[in-house]
UniProtKB/TrEMBL annotation:
Protein name from the UniProt record: Glutamine synthetase
Transmembrane segments: none
UniProt keyword annotations, A-Z: ATP-binding, Ligase, Nitrogen fixation, Nucleotide-binding
InterPro entries found in the cross-reference section: Gln_synt_N, Gln_synt_N_sf, Gln_synth/guanido_kin_cat_dom, Gln_synth_cat_dom
Function noted in UniProt: Catalyzes the ATP-dependent biosynthesis of glutamine from glutamate and ammonia.
Chaperone recorded as keyword: no
Keyword Nucleotide-binding: yes
Pfam family, one: Gln-synt_C
Protein family membership: Belongs to the glutamine synthetase family.
């Protein structure tokens, strides 16, 4: 069997006893897979047509609390159903789980059967459709960083998440020997994802103890987001099978580097990259300049979708490779937007602002919306920044807090036009709830600081 297969192939695999479970999964606001495990025979008999879920799944926080204040889902509205419509183009084997296939579902309104506008997959599909109407195909890739720890998830949970023990004891960035302690789990991840039809390129140690990076080949925008959520699912489940744990927090420790999810982007037409112009300086076409100009102009407005939690903003600090300035530069890792592949057909925009905790559908949609606005407005990105951009003077800053990013989100006319005002309001409520919870909860830091001395 191939990793990504047709419905007919699934039927044959079920009949042969090779597949006994089909996971039907939606993507929630946090970028996690939620859904049901079907007996495979029931799925091929009827479940493939549609199933249903409670609409609170797009109105909860990380802890699955039923957050109030959403227009689309509340106690007043009775928490009705959404239709989960399997996208059969996403049907694939999940090799890290025996006898299992998975399909990603779109969410539809239970009464009208129209796409739920604030569902992450709907948000991205709308922007990809907008690009298509302008004549462009969207190509993207996401790089994911995460930490591997020796303790299991239950061990850490039961102990209240004390300092976990990194699998690597020292910085093993690029070290082949140093990363060998992580390799049993990383090898299983690479191989399982590849067998699932996800074109893994490589993995490597990153710039902190126990930190890993896993890279997947670029693809269409929607498929890139689909693969991203499966990479995270696989990494956690494979780590769990090895008695380890993995975290995609943007910043798990005060004194350690954060984990990012850089997003690479380019537009194509008729199978050719339109960001490339062999006659232009650095190979950057006029269209690419406009696209980049839009992302710079709207960088603060879209930051919430790249950094959705209060913890996300603790990653933005000098000297640890996370950007603090929304400027562009050629092959410079201190810039918020780095131009990669200059002078070649692979030239692209790499946004370095996003953390590993982002929702890939929302992040890709926001970046695309800003870039397309730049093309429509023929925006100029301005001159390239150079040198140590942490020390740059009067330039646009990446928001320093979730509250600052929320203000920019709510004031964004561009996003309200691109996503719809109701979608912006929905995610603004999610941001506000995160801030309300941060302000409500007493932290270990506060107790340590003030228990005796206050």
């Amino acid at each position: 069997m191939t990793a990504k297969f047709s419905f007919d192939a699934l039927k044959k695999a079920v009949k042969a006893g090779e597949i006994d479970t089909v996971i039907a999964a939606l993507v929630d606001m946090q970028g996690r897979l939620q859904g049901k495990r079907f007996h495979a025979q029931h799925f091929v008999d009827s479940g493939w047509q549609e199933t249903h879920c409670c609409n609170y799944l797009l109105a909860t926080d990380l802890e699955m609390a039923t957050v109030q204040g959403y227009e689309a889902s509340s106690w007043e509205r009775g928490y009705g159903d959404y239709v989960m419509k399997p996208d059969m183009e996403t049907l694939r084997l999940i090799p890290w789980v025996p006898g299992t296939a998975l399909v990603i579902c779109d969410l539809l309104d239970h009464h009208t059967h129209q796409p739920v506008p604030h569902a992450p997959r709907s948000v991205l599909k709308r922007q990809i459709g907008r690009a298509k109407e302008m004549g462009y195909d969207v190509m993207m890739a996401t790089e994911l960083e995460f930490f591997l720890f020796e303790e299991s998830y239950p061990e850490l949970f039961d102990a209240g998440y004390p300092d976990p023990t990194p699998v690597a004891r020292y910085n093993v960035d690029y070290s082949i020997f140093g990363n060998s302690r992580c390799e049993p789990a990383m090898r299983d991840m690479r191989n399982a994802l590849y067998r699932a039809g996800i074109p893994v390129e490589c993995s490597k140690g990153e710039a902190e103890r126990g930190q890993e990076e896993l890279n997947v080949k670029y693809s269409g925008g929607l498929e890139t987001a689909d693969m991203h959520v499966l990479v995270k699912q696989c990494a956690k489940e494979v780590a769990q099978s090895h008695g380890l744990s993995a975290t995609f927090m943007a910043k798990y420790h005060t004194d350690k580097a954060g984990s990012s999810s850089h997003v690479h982007q380019s537009l194509w037409k008729a199978g050719k990259p339109v960001f490339f112009d062999a006659e232009a300086p650095n190979g950057m076409s006029e269209l690419m300049h406009h696209y980049l100009g839009g992302q710079l102009a709207h960088a603060r407005e879209i930051t919430y979708f790249l950094a959705p939690y209060t913890n996300s903003y603790k990653r933005f600090c000098e000297g640890l490779f996370a950007p603090t300035k929304a400027v562009w530069s050629l092959d410079n890792r201190t810039a918020g937007f780095r131009i990669c592949g200059e002078g070649t057909k692979s030239i692209r925009v790499e946004c370095r602002i996003g953390g590993a905790d982002l929702n890939p559908y929302l992040a890709c949609a926001a970046l695309l919306a800003a870039g397309l606005a730049g093309i429509e407005g023929e925006m100029d990105p301005g001159p390239e920044a150079a040198g140590d951009i942490y020390k740059a003077g009067e330039v646009t800053e990446v928001p320093k807090s979730l509250g600052e990013a929320l203000g920019a989100l709510e004031g964004s006319a561009m996003l309200k036009e691109a996503f719809g005002p109701e979608v912006v309001a929905h995610y603004a409520r999610a941001a506000r709830w995160e801030l309300e919870e941060q302000n409500r909860v007493v932290t270990d830091w506060e107790r340590m600081r003030g228990f005796e001395r206050a």
